Amino acid sequence: MEHLWIALLAGVVAFAAAWFLARFALKQQLARSQASAKDILDNAHKDADRQKHQIIVKAKEEWFRQRDEQENKLKQRGRKAEEQEARLEEREKKLARREDTLKQREQQIVQRESEVETHKLALRTKDHELERLVAQQNLELSKITQLGVEDAKQLLMTNLRHEFNKEAAELYKGIVDESKANAVREAKRILTMTIERIASEHASETAVSVVPIPSEEVKGRIIGREGRNIKAFEQATGVKVIVDDTPEAVVLSAFDPVKREVARLALEKLINNGKIHPQRVDEIVAQCEQEVDKQIWRAGNESIARVGVGKIHPEMIRLLGRLYFRSSYGQNVLSHSEEVASICGFMAAELRLDVRMAKRAALLHDIGKAISQNQEGTHTQLGMEIGKKYNEDPIVINAIGSHHEDIPADNLISLLVSAADAISGSRPGARRDTLEGYIKRIDKLEKVADSFEAVSKAYAISAGREVRVMVQPEKISDAQADLLASDIAKRIQQELEYPGQIKVTVLRETRVTSYAN
Questions:
Q1: What radius of gyration do the chain's Cα atoms show?
Q2: N or C terminus of the chain: which is more exposed, having fewer CB within 10 Å?
Q3: Nearest-angstrom CA–CA distance, 346 and 343
Q4: Is 254 in contact with 211 (CB distance < 8 Å)?
């Protein structure tokens, strides 16, 4: 029993000791946990302070960066504003200079008008004086010659008409020379500068194409049995095939240049392929028509891009491309149209007109030639119809119709197109004429000049670009010679058709011979 109590007491003591030890260990662990928690809190505060500091620093850096960007933007805006202000000032100066130039021109025009009015007043004064002299001389002649009033009046009027024509011719020459001086000088400057900037090639005009063949036996294959191949080819292309004694060549004849080009390509492919029969002919011709259509589309677009006229209706682009295969007087019509557009653009720029509109009107001025071989009407009429159909500008339509004076020109651009067309067509090497046409033009020029009184002989020189007129010096004065040159030029404009311009030169020469014995 005693041992039981001792064991029980030992157990109690052991339990108490374990409890105290456990509580002590718990307190120690709690203290350590509190210390660890405090350390964690301290570290958290330190991390928070550090992050806060970093955020503040980054915020300041971002603020400084944005401030610098805004300052740079403000500086750039300031510079742009200064540049715009400088440009505006320069533009204002140019406008002021242009305004001064216009004022000077207006003053010159007013001065010219005043001079013309002065000349008119002088002429009216002379008319009144002539009327008084006529009445006085009529009376004196009636008394002296004992002629009737009508006879005396007729004689006096004949004498006075001769004297008045002489004075009027001298006055006309002076006014015309003075008024033309500046205009001619400026026109020469513009035209010379324009022509110097143009250097174009020209193509030869033809209604036939020659296709080389490797040997004479190919001609037999082209003709085919009983002519089946050549008949099928002509029916498919609409082109006449001429197989004659020309060595190693076949000639294709057609007035439609597009059909002739299709036929040329098709015949070359058939010859290279070696298989020539009616079915094959139809296939090759269809392929070549597609190829030529692509060439037409490409040529039209490339021409528009080279000239720079903006957007054009697709159908007009195709018509423009067809001009690549058309020629007139030895000059390729598409190249001629591009050349006219360049010349017209240069002159429009010099005269401060709408350059793009001028180029557009010039490029399309011969658009009617793309269909003139298949439809009735002149190429100007057809061109105007095309322009109206595809809603072209009225200026362009008027330029198309007026460049051969079929209708009057109602704007300056139309006049420039006519001038540019004449320059392109009349420059050396641009066009060729037949011998028969050349001889007829020369003969007509000389007949027109010979039809005037006091003309002894007229000669057309420089390939019909100039007419030299010899006059009888006893029948005409120097001042009247100037009027005669003007009258001949006007008659040529009314009665003849010609490219470019024709110079009229009147030569008056007095020769006096004496002999010393």
A1: 48
A2: C
A3: 5
A4: no
Residue 271 CB-density burial (10 A; 0-12 exposed, 13-18 middle, 19+ buried)? middle
pLDDT in tens, the chain (517 residues): 667 777 777 777 777 777 878 777 788 888 787 878 788 888 888 888 888 888 888 888 888 888 888 888 888 888 888 888 888 888 888 888 888 888 888 888 888 888 888 888 888 888 788 777 777 776 676 666 565 656 656 765 676 666 666 666 666 666 666 666 655 566 655 555 555 445 444 434 455 677 888 877 777 878 888 888 888 888 888 888 888 777 778 888 877 788 888 888 888 888 887 777 888 888 888 888 898 899 989 988 998 888 888 888 989 999 888 888 887 766 788 888 888 898 898 888 888 889 999 999 999 998 888 887 777 778 888 999 999 999 999 999 999 999 888 888 888 898 889 888 888 776 544 454 555 666 777 888 888 888 888 888 888 887 677 889 998 888 888 878 888 888 898 888 888 876 557 888 998 877 767 667 6
How far is the CA of 471 from the CAs of 164, 174, 483, 485, in angstroms? 21, 21, 13, 11
Q: Which amino acid is at 42?
A: D
Return the number of other C-beta atoms located less than 10 Å from residue 359's C-beta: 27
Question: What are the helix (H) ranges across 274-408?
Answer: 278-307, 314-322, 333-350, 355-363, 379-389, 394-402
410 CB burial (10 A radius; 0-12, 13-18, 19+): middle
Amino acid at site 515: Y
- Between the two ends of the chain, the Cα-to-Cα distance in Å is 204
Q: Which tokens go with 84?
A: 């715009």
Q: Return the biggest CA–CA distance within the chain.
A: 207
CA atoms of 445 and 459, how far apart (whole Å): 8
CB atoms within 10 A of CB 269: 16
Structure tokens at 25: 């260990």
Which residue's structure tokens are 């030895």? 330
Strand partners, 504: 467
CB 249 within 8 A of CB 211: yes
Asked if 471 and 456 touch (Cβ cutoff 8 Å), the reply is: yes
Identify any residues that bridge with 471 across adjacent strands, giving them in sequence order: 455
